[in-house]
Amino acid sequence: MSTSAITSASGIQMDYxxxxxxxxxxxxxxxxxxxxxxxxxxxxxxxxxQLESMSTSFAEVLATTNRSYANSLLGKNVTFYIGxxxxxxxETKVGTVNSVFNDPETGENLLGVMVxxxxxxxxxxxxxxxxILIEN
Length: 136
Prior knowledge:
single chain
């Protein structure tokens, strides 16, 4: 099975219709196809298309909701973990969210978090999933 693409419901339905036409053209006249079975299968494809459409709509709503949530974190202190390159252990960091942006490659909403002040300040980029605590 190919993992490069998922066939849409309409594509599956078109393939089914081609197969159905071939079956009708080559059927045994003494044993015709069952009309109820064909109607049932077509209804299932219709339901699959509706579910696919709902899934797309929910994904759009979720993306909008995530963006709104990320924007609501601007100016708030967040706690997150960062891997220490020297020791390989996780360190807890606390910083202020100073930017929200969208990664053009993944479409993920990311936070720009400033930890520390002055010359020692460091900016980290993290996903919404990386936030473990939010404070005013």
